[in-house]
Specification:
Layout (H helix, E strand, L loop, with lengths): L1 H12 L5 E3 L11 H15 L1 E2 L7 E7 L18 E7 L1 H7 L4 E4 L4 H11 L5 E4 L11 E6 L2 E7 H5 L4 E2 L2 H7 L6
Parallel strand pairs: 3-4, 3-5, 5-6, 6-7
Antiparallel strand pairs: 1-8, 2-9, 7-8
Amino acid sequence: MLASLFLIGALSTTPQMSVQAASQTIVEDESGGVSGAVNRMLGGIVSYVRWPAPVEPVKTLCVVGGPRLTDRIAPDVPGRGPAIAVRRTTVAAATAAGDCDILFLGRLPDADRNRLIGWVRNRPVLTISDDDPDCLHGAMFCLVHRRGGLSFSVNLDAIARGPLRIDPRVLKIGRGDGGGT
C-alpha cells in the first residue's frame, strides 16, 4: 500500500508521467460485447472513487456529447457500490444544474469539452471520456477500444485537481498487476 501511495506521489509530481495507461483489457466476443465491457469498466472505475461527505445513495451520470463506444450506458458497479442514474444532457444544462456526480464525455467540440473540464475543477465530479484515447484533454479516465478489448488511461493531473479520492488500486490496474492488495 505504501508503495502505491509513493507511486501516486511520484506520478503526480512528474509531468511526463501524468497519464498512465491500463494494460488490463476486457475482451468480449458476443453480441453487445463492447457495451457490456464499457458498462463493467465504468462500474469498476466508479467503485474505486470516494466522494466527499455527505454520500448520496444514488450517483448521477450525465452523458454529454455522442459516446463513441456505446449508446447504452448503464454502469455495472460491482459489490456494494452506489446506484447510478444515467441521463443525457447538454454542456449548458450540466454546468447550470450542477447535479452531475459523473460526467461521461463523448464526441464534443473542443470548446465544449474545455468548458466542462474547467467547470469540473475543484468539484466532486468524476470525468470519463471515450473520445480521448491518450487522456490529454482533461478527463480523469479515458476509455480506449482497440482490436481485442477495452482498456483505459488515467490522467493523474486531472484527478489531483479535484476533491475526489481515487483508490490507489486503480493505479495497479494501470500498471497491469490486476488491482489486488
